[in-house]
Amino acid sequence: MTLSIKECAEKLHRAKNIISCLQAVDTTDIQDFVYLEIGTCFKEDEGLSTYVAARFLEENGLGGKVFSHEMIPEHVEESRKIVRKYGQELLSRIEWVIGNSAHTVPETLKKVDTVDVAFVDGGGHPLFSLFEFEALWEKLSLGGLILVDDCNYLPPSPAYEGRRDYGKAQLIMPFLMLMEYINFQPGVIAKKIGKLPDSAAVIEETLAITTMTPFMKELFGNDRIRSIASQFQDMDFAFLGGNQLVIGRKKAIARLRNDNPKLL
Ligand SMILES: C[S@@+](CC[C@H](N)C(=O)[O-])C[C@H]1O[C@@H](n2cnc3c(N)ncnc32)[C@H](O)[C@@H]1O
Predict the structure, then answer these.
(1) Is 120 helix (H, G, I), strand (E, B) or coil?
(2) Total number of domains in the chain
(3) Looking at the structure, do residues 98 and 144 belong to the same domain, yes or no?
(4) Which of 6, 39, 133, 236 is in Cβ range 3.0-4.6 Å of 253 for a Cys bridge?
C-alpha cells in the first residue's frame, strides 16, 4: 500500500511543510538531489519525514538521496517499518545514520557536495540546532532551503520523552534578527519602497525583530554576534504554519513565497 505525497501532507503538518520546501527548490540543474534531516521519528506513523522526502524524489523522477540522522536506534527501526509498509522500493534511496548529530552530521556533509533541503528536527537543545544550522548553511545549494521545527518552547508531551524546554530555532532566531538589523538602513529600505521608511514600513521589513523583540537589547550590543550575523548577507527566511521556520538565500525564499503567498 502506497501513501502518496498528498496523503502525507493531509496526515501531518510537518510533512506538508517538508513538501512545500521540496517543491520550491528549482531542480532543473540538479542531478542528485540531497535531502538531509536530523531527527527521524518519534513514534510510528508520526515519523513520516524520511518517507515523504524519499517518496517526493520518486514521484518526481529525481535522482538523489535522503540522509536521516537519529541517535535512538529504535526510532530508526520505526522509520524503516514505515518505509517498508508504504514503499519498499524507496529503501535504496534512504541512508539512516545512527548517532549524535554533533558527530554524524559533519561526517555526512563531508560525503556530499551540497544539500538541497535540510530539516532540523532533532530536539534536545537549541545549541545543537544552531550548530547543525551553521554546518548546513555552508553546504546549502544556491536554491536550497533549511527547515527548522519549532521556533518556540513546546509543552511536555507524552508522545516524546526527550527534552523540549526550548524550541529548536530559538538560538537561530537571534542571528536572523541581527541580520535584519545590520541590513536595516533607512536608505536601503527607501530604495525598496520609494520613500524614507516610517515605522509601519520598518515593521514590514523586520519580521524576526518584530516577532522576537524581547531578545533584542542584549544581542545588538554583542560584537561577536554582530560579526557572525554579517556573514549572512544573502540570507532570508519565512515562517511556515505549525511554528516552523525556513531559511535560505533570498532567491530561494522568494520562490517559496511565490508558491505559498500566505507565508509570513
Ligand atoms: C521530533 S522527532 C523527529 C520527527 C521526524 N522528523 C518527523 O517529522 O516525523 C526528534 C528526533 O530527534 C532525535 N534526536 C534528538 N537529539 C538528537 C541528536 N543530537 N542527534 C540525533 N538525533 C537526535 C530524537 O531521538 C527523536 O527521535
Answers:
(1) strand
(2) 2
(3) yes
(4) 236
Q: Give the three cell numbers for residue 60.
A: 518526481
Interval 28-85: pLDDT, tens: 989 899 999 999 987 666 789 999 999 999 999 999 999 999 999 999 999 999 999 9
pTM of the predicted structure, to 2 decimals: 0.85
Pocket of ligand 1 (CB under 6 A): 14, 37-42, 46-49, 69-72, 75, 100-101, 121-124, 128, 162
Which CA distances in Å does 42 have to 39, 93, 164, 185? 8, 21, 13, 44
How far apart CA 122 and CA 100 sit, in angstroms, is: 10
Which atom of ligand 1 has the smallest separation from the CA of 122?
A: 12
In this structure, how many other beta carbons lie within 10 angstroms of the beta carbon of residue 108? 20
Say yes or no: 186 and 69 in one domain: no
Same structural domain, 165 and 176: no
- Which tens digits make up the pLDDT trace of 235-256? 888 888 767 889 999 999 999 9
- Is 195 found in the same domain as 161? no
